[in-house]
UniProtKB/TrEMBL annotation:
Catalytic activity, EC: 3.2.1.20
Enzyme class: hydrolase
GO biological process annotation, one example: oligosaccharide catabolic process
Stated name of the protein: Alpha-glucosidase
Domain of life: Bacteria
Length: 578
């Protein structure tokens, strides 16, 4: 059976249908697969590149676009369909690039605009799609607009692009409401006027250097129309929309109740999350994407509960995908996993969209480490550090991480991978406080470690400076010793390695069209194991602590290598047939 995808076309045909963006809508591009190029995303495996930690071409210690360019072939050989790039735009980097000061250029530390154009072009030549990050909730405080707002007067058009309010109390020194920043501390900062006197307050749901736009202002809409078109004109295949559920705030900006203040879970209902009006933005953007053909996509980063609310982002005429954070947040436990899988397929299915699946990204503890903790739920987004109450056992972590991925990649829909998970990288726990960069760490005075532990530059070559990340020894966060053993060159070609497991899973997933398949649960021999069928592949996963007998059939993939004759604890197998 041939894998589907444009890479199956002849080179000339490929560049016609993809590189130059003329699509062959309505034509099946593979005899074995029903999807058309316009539907590529429905079962795509999309690999997240976090540019500052992927590959550094010039020795600054910070990754860059040329570094990514140099490894596109490695991503192709891994077997993914698309690459999502976290922000590489000009930014003071107070929140690792999610504080954008210019939406239509490249930060000099990552390269120049021509590097981005070349990267998009080369990826397309290889048959890889490119999705870029769009950060519409807030800009950097260094954005020209915010600087203009600071220099303008209350009530001016320049202030109206952001959320400025007078303070409460006689002197206006009490913030306009009691909202708190996601990173800790108040969500309002008072400005100092040119004459040195205190002025209005502005809202920032994240760091004080990330002022929120006012999305009731038409000018903001027009600005982002231009940003979308700018990158679509350069050939990007879509956008991952940062905090997609936060753009609209409840009118009047009401105070949080005590219960809302106490609930710091990412999906908690608050007057700045998931307001119905936010969907108007995505219906509008969907129209802009459609001008460029049917194959450009929007993916929502929306920490919204329950799944039915999340699925509203992918209704027809809105976005295409939403990260399934309910799945990411599920503990390593058979009932919990089965429930969230069922609920996801139902909620997204009812909205007419495929589900996505994701275990790791740049905001959460790497799943390899997370799933080996007794407390798997309260660490998002607290992070792990030297004084955390527990530390994952490395062997258990590796085993569970592999089993979890093998389970995820057998599910129908689209899957997101985060750079380094294909190497089985653990969360880095022992980062010295002085080197931590995440604003979460600093805004909570170290109470929450935050996200640096999953952002450490990844290893390519064991016996090279910075494990092949950088030609100098520089790395913006220190790499632990264990990254040497886990470097890509150590794993390549070794059938027991996590890298080869990922390659096998991705190839079989394509061969058996699991991404467009149907899941049906089957009775398993033990309540601690899950068993389901997708197409002609049977998948079993053991969450318990004793082995379970395997059904007959040929094992085509096993998260433990070599495959034992039984289903071992923390072990997933794919069996052909049944
Ligand atoms: C999203 C990003 C995160 C960032 C935040 C503010 O959650 O994934 O990294 O800090 O938005 O932009």
């Amino acid at each position: 059976m041939r894998p589907h995808g444009l890479e199956q076309n002849q080179p000339s045909e490929r560049s016609r249908s993809f590189g130059q963006r003329t699509r062959v809508v309505g034509m099946s591009n593979s005899s074995s697969h029903p999807l058309r190029p316009a539907d590529w995303w429905q079962d795509a495996v999309i690999y997240q590149v976090y540019p500052r930690s992927f590959a550094d071409s010039n020795g600054t210690g910070l990754g860059d676009l040329k570094g990514i360019q140099g490894h596109l072939g490695d991503l192709k050989s891994l077997g993914v369909d698309a690459v999502w790039l976290s922000p590489f735009y000009p930014s003071p980097q107070n929140d690792a690039g999610y504080d954008v000061s210019d939406y239509t250029d490249v930060d000099p530390s990552f390269g120049v605009l021509a590097d981005a154009e070349k990267l998009i072009f080369s990826a397309h030549e290889l048959g890889l799609r490119i999705i870029v990050d769009l950060v519409p909730n807030h800009s950097s405080s260094e954005h020209r607009w915010f600087q203009e707002a600071l220099a303008s007067t209350p009530g001016s058009n320049a202030r109206a692009r952001y959320i400025f309010r007078d303070g409460l109390g006689e002197d206006g020194d009490i913030p306009p409401n009691n909202w708190e920043s996601v990173f800790g501390g108040p969500a309002w900062t008072r400005i100092t006027q040119a004459d040195g006197s205190p002025g209005q307050w502005y809202l920032h749901l994240f760091d004080s250097s990330q002022p929120d736009f006012d999305w009731t202002n038409q000018e903001v809409w027009e600005h982002f129309d231009g940003v979308l078109r700018f990158w679509l004109d350069r050939g990007v295949d879509g956008f991952r929309v940062d905090v997609a559920h936060s753009l609209m705030k409840e009118p009047g900006l009401p105070d949080l109740s005590d219960a809302q203040l106490a609930d710091r879970s990412p999906g908690a209902a608050k007057p700045f999350w998931d307001q119905d009006a936010v969907h108007d933005v995505y219906r509008h953007w969907s129209g802009i994407l459609a001008e460029y053909g049917e194959d450009r996509i929007l993916c929502a980063e929306a920490w919204v509960w329950p799944l039915e609310r999340m699925a509203r982002y992918v209704r027809p005429g809105e976005m295409h995908q939403a990260f399934n954070f309910a799945y990411l947040s599920a503990p390593w436990q058979p009932e919990a996993l089965r429930d969230v899988i069922d609920e996801s397929l139902k909620a997204f299915g009812d909205a007419g969209a495929p589900s996505t699946w994701v275990l790791s990204n740049h905001d959460v503890v790497r799943h390899t480490s997370r799933l080996a903790l007794a407390d798997q739920e309260s660490i998002v987004p607290g992070g792990l550090g030297p004084n955390s109450p527990e530390r994952p056992d490395p062997a258990l972590a590796t085993r569970r991480g592999r089993a979890a991925t093998a389970l995820m990649l057998a599910l129908p829909g689209s899957a997101y991978l985060y750079q380094g998970e294909e190497l089985g990288l653990p969360e880095v726990i022992d980062i010295p406080d002085a080197l931590r960069e995440d604003p979460t760490f600093h805004r909570t005075n170290g109470e929450r470690y935050g996200r640096d532990g999953c952002r450490v530059p990844i290893p390519w070559v064991k016996d090279a400076p910075a494990f092949g990340f950088s030609p100098s020894r520089e790395t913006w966060l220190p790499q632990p010793e264990v990254f040497g053993e886990l470097a890509r060159d150590q794993q390549e070609g070794d059938p027991s390695s996590t890298l080869e497991l990922y390659k096998t899973l991705l190839q079989l997933r394509k061969e058996h069209a699991l991404g467009t398949g149907q899941l049906s649960w089957q009775e398993s021999a033990d309540p601690q194991a899950l068993r389901f069928q997708n197409g002609n592949v049977t998948v079993l996963c053991n969450f318990g602590n004793h082995p379970v007998a395997l059904p007959d059939g040929k094992i085509i993939a096993s998260s433990i290598w070599p495959a034992p004759s039984e289903l071992a604890p923390d072990h997933t197998v794919w069996i052909k047939g049944h």
